[in-house]
Amino acid sequence: MAFYYSEPSRTFSEYLLIPNLTRKDCTPASVRLATPLLRFRAGEQSAIQLNIPFASAIMQAVSDHQMAIALARSGGIAFIYVSQPVEKQAEMVERVKKFKAGFV
User: Fold this and answer.
1) Predicted TM-score of the model (pTM)
2) Tell me: the pLDDT tens digits for 46-86?
């Protein structure tokens, strides 16, 4: 079911997060969107991080080779679902790795 809102959308810079309590250094430029992809201990950093948090869901209806290619072109990552034979998983990974977006 879709919901339609008659109100205009807002951006981060249009309002304060907590009125009268947000500091001046709390601006969109100072926000860090890095997202860890692997487990890590407290005080350490994840070995793999995405600076743009785009990741596909690990679902058969969502993650396929086309979604993986589209996300990779945008700086994201796609996860291969495991509810398929290993051969199919390897074939999907091969399709993504062989994709050529063009030459510079």
Assistant:
1) 0.53
2) 898 877 767 787 778 778 888 888 888 877 888 888 888 99
**Cα 14 to Cα 23: distance, rounded to the nearest angstrom:** 15
List, in sequence order, every residue forming a beta bridge with 50; answer none if it has no partner: 35
In eight-state DSSP terms, residue 42 is T
Name the one residue in this structure whose structure tokens are 């950093």: 45
Only one residue has tokens 């250094």, namely: 25
Q: Which two tokens stand for residue 95?
A: 């399709």
- Taking the alpha carbons of 2, 57, 81, 96 in that order, is the dihedral positive or negative? positive
DSSP, res 43: T
Rg (CA), the chain: 19
Question: What is the distance, to the nearest Å, from the Cα of residue 76 to the centroid of all Cα atoms in its chain?
Answer: 5
Tell me the helix, strand and coil percentages in the chain, rounded to 5: 25, 5, 65
Q: Is 68 helix (H, G, I), strand (E, B) or coil?
A: helix
- Give me 93's structure tokens: 């990974």
Residue 16 has pLDDT above 60, yes or no: no
